[in-house]
Amino acid sequence: MERSNPYQPVNNASPALQIAPGQGFMVKAKDDSETFIFTKAIQNHQSGTATFYRTANTTPSIVVNLTVP
């Protein structure tokens, strides 16, 4: 389903949302004198994700099998 507006507006009336690792967002200030601060109280970390955290020490590898005809 294609949406004409790919942006999802969120404000204080919106339910709490979590963004995925690496995902960004934009903030629209009321005017140039506004300050936007991320306090520790509003941060929530999802430590169960395996996107950047690995439970095992794995080494990326590629296996190439060569045969002679």
Return the average pLDDT rounded to an integer. Answer: 77
- Strand percentage, roughly? under 5%
Number of domains: 1
Query: What profile does the largest beta sheet have?
Result: none
Please report the total strand number as a whole number. Answer: 0
Span from first to last CA? 50 Å
Low-confidence stretches: none
- Quaternary structure classification: single chain
Which range best describes the helical content: under 10%, 10-25%, 25-40%, 40-55%, 55-70% or over 70%?
under 10%
What is the SS-derived class? little secondary structure
Radius of gyration: 21 Å
Shape: elongated
Number of helices: 0
Provide a descriptive summary of the structure in words.
This protein is low in regular secondary structure and 69 residues long. The protein has one domain. The chain is 0% helix and 0% strand. It contains no helices and no strands. The model has no long low-confidence stretch (mean pLDDT 77).
